[in-house]
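Support request, please re-run this one:
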Amino acid sequence: MLVATEFSTASHYALQYAVALVRGHNATIFVAHIVTPRDPSELLHDTTSLRERMAQAEAEIQHFSESVDLFGLTCIPIVQSGSLGETLEALANYHSVDLVVTGARGLNEHRPPTLGSGAEEIFRHATRPVLTIGPQAALRGMAASAPKQILCATDFSASSERAMGLALTFARRGSRRLIVLHVQDGSTLWTIPTRLHMQQISTQRMRHLVEALGGNALGLEFRVAFGSATETILSTAHEAQIDLIVLGSKSAGAWAHGAPLSTAYNVIVQASCPVLTVRS
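Re-run finished. Output below.
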């Protein structure tokens, strides 16, 4: 498991959550901080500024790694320089980790929101699942433990199918409840008969997907809603007291400069529980 940190409160909870997920198993947690260059010349010429920031990060990551009870787990701190998403993906590949855990600070009021965030860059580049502790989840001061109430939102894309598979894995490990949700956007002008028809079709598609993944014996709850995907996912999570949201996310190639923030990122920023994202 790889925990990406920027030494924030959310990152601290990310490390606690990672420990809770693998506690009792013979697992190694890699804790990584990436020093991103302020301009390309820093990497090309190994500037004094970069060396100073690397040294500071080395000291901080050691303190950070010791700030959480690891319950005997092996924790290896890593500091590297480079592009955030690409460097973390290379580390994850090198160490053969199966999950990346990180924290998100949220929107920066001093920057345009279309720039996204470090957390979005991480899960857009990662080829493996990324579990993100958003700012609201960190403020909530949640107890780090294995999830019991899970919400998996699907739009029937390839990434959503992978996300469903992970949600079912968590459900098999002892969660008490798994809600599978599909939100039909742009449907405010639909008639009631049309909505009922779409609800039946979407529910059937969800059931077929779950059956294909071998989860039809788990007694899941299927829901179809109409409206904003972000708002519906968040309201459903709040109403059902969900402690893990699972979503598909777009690939790095789909992250065009100036594009609106994704549903996954907006959910992460506002959700009061961790969010697990999976790329296609």
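The longest strand covers residues 28-35. The longest helix spans residues 192-212.
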